[in-house]
Design goal:
Helix content is about 30%, strand content about 25%. With about 325 residues, the protein is of the alpha+beta class. It has two domains: about 240 residues, Hsp33 domain (3-Layer(bab) Sandwich); about 50 residues, HSP33 redox switch-like (CBS domain Like, Alpha-Beta Complex). The N terminus is likely disordered. One of its GO terms (biological process) is protein refolding.
């Protein structure tokens, strides 16, 4: 196994999450290992989710970072599941710096058993939808985010995303994801379009490239969930691909980051309308907003709310509909 020009795989910094990219030499196959456990702990400590919900949401956190790392634009990927089961909404957002936040919205009377599958949680009546939105940070006037919407097809999160990538991006993608209360890790492999070896010093036939892809998938498929949770990235890479010639790049470091601000919350209240805000003021004397991602509380009194509606500046919805208001 080869490494980058530094001659060694860079060890992760203590306390940091790690995303490790690699490619197979002379074959159109790329991969990424991720350990996003510190970010996941930031998410899970803010919410008392049932075990089955934590498993799916934690896998979404790892998957969102893996997909985001392959994007070539300045902006965010927003991964959502709109469900028709006891879980109504799951959202994970990851920007181009691999800063993540995540939340889930459950029915008030939801009863969720350990081991519940994605269909049981969010596709009870076959109406669940999986959505990926690409939202550029530097949009030109009139530009809308790209959004892909597909049925919620799969018994687990890895299968849902694999089906989405094949259907929407026509890109063979395989994922292995694992999450518990403290750890969230994963592996992504993608088969890239084969160009006949024109760019390589040693041309590779399409048949050989396909053999490499099949071998990589076969090796990765030997991973068990317990093994992924208990084993660090370097060890997993050595264990799986020690006979392969791969090139490893400098690691990236995902982190938890919530983008909520008082200004954005104010914009959301403006979108709700002056009448609804005034009704809340009349009832309880203030408007309180809790960010469902990080739990931060924003409070607006009568003077604050009056100032919101003085300006004619357009309001923009930047806080998702899961945010609670009281």
């Amino acid at each position: 196994m080869t490494t980058d020009t530094s001659g060694a795989i860079t060890a992760p910094i203590a306390g940091q999450d790690t995303l490790q990219k690699f490619i197979f030499d002379n074959a159109a196959v790329r991969g990424q290992f991720i350990d996003v456990s510190h970010t996941w702990q930031e998410v899970v400590t803010r919410h008392a989710y049932p075990l089955a919900v934590k498993k799916v949401l934690g896998e979404m956190v790892a998957a969102a970072a893996l997909l985001s790392a392959n994007l070539k634009f300045n902006g965010s990927i927003i991964m959502q599941i709109h469900g028709d089961g006891p879980v109504r909404l799951m959202v994970v957002e990851c920007d181009s710096d691999l800063r993540l936040r995540a939340t889930a919205k459950l029915d008030t009377d939801a009863e969720i058993v350990d081991g519940a599958t994605v269909p049981q949680l969010m596709n009870a009546n076959g109406k669940g939808r999986f959505i990926i939105t690409l939202d550029p940070a530097d949009k030109v006037p009139g530009q809308q985010p790209y959004q892909g919407i597909v049925p919620l097809d799969g018994d687990d999160m890895a299968t849902v995303i694999e089906n989405y990538m094949l259907r929407s991006e026509q890109l063979d993608t395989r994922l292995w994801l694992a999450t518990d209360d403290t750890t969230s890790r994963g592996l992504l492999l993608q088969k890239l379009p084969h160009h006949g070896g024109k760019a390589e010093a040693t041309p590779v036939s399409e048949e050989d490239a396909l053999d490499t892809w099949n071998r990589a998938v076969m090796l990765a498929s030997t991973l068990k969930e317990e093994e992924i949770l208990a084993t660090d990235i370097d060890t997993l890479m050595q264990r799986l691909f020690w006979e392969e010639t791969i090139r490893v790049f400098e690691p990236l470091h995902p982190s938890f980051h919530c983008t909520c601000t008082r200004e954005k919350v104010g914009n959301m209240l403006k979108m709700l309308g002056e009448q609804e805000v005034n009704d809340t003021l009349a009832e309880i004397g203030h408007v309180g907003v809790n960010c469902d991602f990080c739990g931060l509380h924003y409070d607006f009194d009568k003077v604050d709310c009056a100032q919101l509606f003085i300006t004619d500046a357009p309001a923009e919805v930047l806080i998702p509909p899961a945010t609670s208001i009281n």
